[in-house]
Design brief:
Layout (H helix, E strand, L loop, with lengths): L1 H5 L3 H8 L3 H8 L6 H13 L2 E9 L2 E6 L4
GO molecular function, one term: DNA binding
Organism: Pelagibacterium lentulum
Protein name: HTH cro/C1-type domain-containing protein
Length: 70
Amino acid sequence: MARAALGIGVRDLARMAGVSSNTISRLERGEELKADTVATIRTALELAGVQFLDEGATASGLGVALKGES
């Protein structure tokens, strides 16, 4: 959802986070990754302008928004 909000592809996010495209695909399929890898990807998304919303911040629970649009 965060990647789609930015309008970037799997390869773009992989390059931004310094991980492989396969790693991004695995994350998006819900496969388990090392916590530090997930943190690295999250940081890359946040630096690109994504804000992660905690449960209860939206009607449907967890979510994402572009910074300045929440």
